[in-house]
Amino acid sequence: MGSAFDQDVRALIDSCQADWLPSSFLGRLPRPALDAFQAAGTLVRFRPKEILITEDDAETDVFLLLSSCVKVTAALDADGHALLAIRVGGDIVGEIAATDGGRRVATVRACGREPVYAIRLAQADFHREASAYPDVLLRLSGAIGRKLRTATRRRVDYSGQPPLIRLARVLVELADDYGQPLGGKSIMIGVDLTKLELGTLVGVTQTTAERALRTMREQGLIDTRGRRPIVRDAEAMRALARPLSQTDK
């Protein structure tokens, strides 16, 4: 029998599991491996805006996100930060530094309205437990591969697509991954996002992002009056995001 604390942690994990995407790192993990990570790690809690990982730090801990969401940002040459990605319960962060031993390439900050609960593992503990389960190494490769694929696709978009289409694609991704249906065709993206952050996600200035969003509003595609964007017509937004080569097929 485990301690009362261990049982409480397992109960927390059980309560969070229903919200994990099936495609996420934890969503695909065998329960024995998840229990092993829980036993080897430490349960940590972060209030909104608290930092999990700091860019350029040398520490190499891994965080298995159980709940809520975080923003992944990188400092720009000028003042400010670029929003690189959003991660939610079920995702893993910090695995790149834990894999190659390099410095942190981004800052990870809690951004949900609820606290972030996570299992924190030292690099050596993560490697030891991951090596004991072949499925974990496969899932880890998959998680890194999906992040690389997304980064590559956005890099291609930067050079080949206008801002309106780039922003539409990101909004479709966000709605698919973090959307909360509101009825009819409307989906609310369940993360607080500023227009500047939406712009940095697709490599444009806030002014350019605002111009693209204005066009979308005029077409009845989006509502940006609140902190959480609402996609008013998901299918029409998807059509806007689709390349002409795919539309013509």
Folded structure, characterized:
α6 crosses α9 (234-241). The chain has helices at residues 4-17, 31-40, 95-100, 123-131, 134-160, 163-178, 195-201, 206-218, 234-241, 244-247; strands at 42-46, 51-53, 62-65, 69-75, 81-88, 92-93, 107-110, 116-121, 179-183, 186-189, 222-223, 230-231. It is 46% helix and 21% strand. The protein has a four-stranded antiparallel sheet with strand order 1-8-3-6. Strands 2-7-4-5 form a four-stranded antiparallel sheet. Strands 9-10-12-11 form a four-stranded antiparallel sheet. The protein is an alpha+beta fold. The chain contains ten helices and twelve strands. Mean pLDDT is 89; it is low at 244-249. β11 and β12 (230-231) form a beta hairpin. It folds into two domains: 4-157, Jelly Rolls (Sandwich), CATH 2.60.120.10; 161-247, Arc Repressor Mutant, subunit A. InterPro entries: cNMP-bd_dom, cNMP-bd_dom_sf, Env_Response_Regulators, HTH_CRP, RmlC-like_jellyroll, WH-like_DNA-bd_sf, WH_DNA-bd_sf. Residues 161-235 form the HTH crp-type domain.
